[in-house]
Specification:
Keywords: Hydrolase. The protein is α/β, with parallel strands linked by helices and about 220 residues long. The protein has helices spanning about 25-40, 55-65, 85-90, 100-120, 130-145, 160-170, 170-180; strands at about 1-10, 45-50, 75, 150-155, 190-195, 195-205. A hairpin with a 2-residue loop joins strand 5 (about 190-195) and strand 6. The longest helix has 18 residues, at about 100-120.
């Protein structure tokens, strides 16, 4: 069977002028997950990253640890949902506040639920069904190029990972609204591919952020 490792990006810069940049913690997290994949002797034949800066920067850090000669191929279908647009349309346009991350998370959670309920009739530039379809398409195209025994690394975001995990469990909306909330920065989710299709075998692995690295465990 083939294997696909979905890596959530390192912590972004919540509350900063440009959210789409790794924080100093995010940079450290990238190094830790890179070391973990090196320890596991992961050898991949395909690499993918979304086009967001936090995803690409995480990919660069990890691939440097793995000694990979080639960069991951950029595919914007692995990008996260547009939280700014979703909150603007469904959450009153609340802004990130570094002093109240929990308050913003509550607004975002309610906005995502409203986004899902709105379906194709929603006001956002990308509706929930469109988002779910594009991430499923990105996965399907990656699976199609993997041969027996080959592995892939994908650098993406929590909403994408949660949605795909939910999809493989039979409920993509549950994945977005529940699994997405508990994904850790630089956590590892593993899928395997074979004659029976794609199977979720592990979700959100983060033992590499236990012990001495526990200070680096973040969810947002």
């Amino acid at each position: 069977m083939g294997a696909i490792h979905l890596i959530r990006h390192g912590q972004a810069s919540f509350g900063a002028a440009d959210y789409d940049q790794l924080s100093s913690t995010g940079i450290e997290q990238g190094a830790v997950v890179g070391a973990e994949l090196l320890r596991r002797k992961i050898r991949f034949t395909e690499g993918r990253t979304g086009s967001m800066a936090r995803q690409r920067a995480t990919a660069e850090i990890v691939l440097d640890w793995l000694g990979a000669g080639a960069a991951a191929k950029e595919d914007p279908r692995w990008n996260e949902y547009d939280h700014v647009d979703i909150v603007a349309r469904h959450g009153g346009g609340a802004l990130q506040d570094a002093n109240d991350p929990r308050g913003y998370q509550e607004v975002l959670d309610a906005s995502l639920a409203a986004w899902v309920r709105a379906g194709d009739d929603g006001p956002c530039a990308e509706t929930w069904p469109q988002f779910a379809e594009r991430v499923r398409g990105a996965l399907a195209d990656l699976v199609a190029v993997l041969r027996k025994g080959e592995s892939a690394l994908v650098f993406t975001s929590g909403g994408v990972i949660g949605t795909l995990a939910g999809h493989l469990l039979g409920d993509p909306a549950m994945g977005l609204l529940q699994l997405n909330r508990v994904t850790v920065n630089c956590g590892i989710t593993k899928l395997v591919t074979g004659r029976g299709g794609v199977t979720l075998v592990s979700f959100n692995e983060h033992a590499h952020f236990e012990g001495r690295a526990a200070r680096l465990l973040t969810y947002r």
